[in-house]
Amino acid sequence: MVECDFVGPPIWRKLEGPKWHPRINMKRTTVGPKVVSGLLLFGWSIALAAQPLQGPDAGTSSNSAQSAPLPAEQVAKNLQERNAARAEALKQFNGTRVYRMQYRGFGGDRDAEMVVRVSYRAPNSKTFSVVSQTGSKFILDRIFKKLLDGEQEALNEENLRNTALSAENYEFTSAGYEVAPEGVQYVLNLLPRTKNKFLYRGKIWVDAKDFAVVRIEAEPARNPSFWIKKTEVRHRYVKVNDFWLPAENHTESVIRLGGRAILSIEYKDYRITRAAPLRASETARQDSK
């Protein structure tokens, strides 16, 4: 199970009738919700793949700035094992999200904001309650609410497996070993093994003690739409009690016909109401020494 959700936005307005652009001559151009959804699903899948529900250290030995860094393959293995064990430990939590979206450019300007309360109950139940919403009705109804509706489907085992940060989906190579104010972090390059539009290429920062993803900077493995020239995603996590949960997302897309779309999600007010003791992985324990 994962608590996550971040997305990449496109053109809001359906464009119909003869259109002309200096580089594109079209008899009929239609850019509607399907284009929007493609980018949304991409960004959403990155957060799913990160499996951010990392659990506690459970008394295992860990790397420090003085210890020799592990190879990328071992870091990825530890990350995957800790993800599976720790996601299992989190049973119930509540939180708040603030979705904000801004589009400027071709087709008109749009802005919207939605505040949502989220409740999760293991193994696969999420409920959402909209606290407030303002701005563009199109963004509110066709983007934000579509994301909320889609999260329940994302919790099924097949979707999680196909988007997981695993050796089956990605090739991992080392990009460095950093000492940050928050602690020592491994930096890994990610190269998707297929051109699945829900996978991505970029970098992840992995906490060397908890083997938890703390930051992601990425772009789609495959452009989800002709209308999108470029999409960049930044995602950050924060430790809440013994778990790493999403803290903020920033996704920016450059539109081919001109314009820029920015979506941000702020995650806050977490309250973990039930969690099982962590069943630590023996392999991860030995590899961390």
Overview of the structural elements:
The chain has 289 residues and is an alpha+beta fold. The longest helix is centred in the N-terminal third of the chain and has 18 residues, at 33-50. Strand 4 and strand 5 (125-135) form a beta hairpin. The model is unreliable at 1-35, 49-68 and 281-289 (pLDDT under 50). The two termini are 28 Å apart. The protein is 24% helix and 43% strand. The strands form 2 sheets. A 10-stranded antiparallel β-sheet has the order 5-4-3-12-11-10-9-8-7-6. It contains 5 helices and 12 strands. Helix 1 packs across helix 4 (157-163).
List the helices and strands and how they pair.
Layout lengths: L18 E3 L2 E3 L6 H18 L21 H18 E16 L4 E12 L3 E11 L1 H18 L2 H7 L6 E11 L2 E10 L7 E8 L5 E8 L7 E13 L2 E13 L3 E17 L6 H7 L1
Antiparallel strand pairs: 1-2, 3-4, 3-12, 4-5, 6-7, 7-8, 8-9, 9-10, 10-11, 11-12
Low-confidence stretches: 1-35, 49-68, 281-289
Helix content: 10-25%
Largest sheet: 10 strands, antiparallel
Q: What fraction of the residues are assigned to beta strands by DSSP?
A: 35-45%
Identify the strand order in the major beta sheet.
Answer: 5-4-3-12-11-10-9-8-7-6
Decide which structural class fits the backbone.
Answer: alpha+beta
Distance between the termini: 28 Å
Average of pLDDT: 76
Q: What's the β-strand tally?
A: 12
Order of helices and strands: EEHHEEEHHEEEEEEEH
Count of helical stretches: 5
Shape: globular
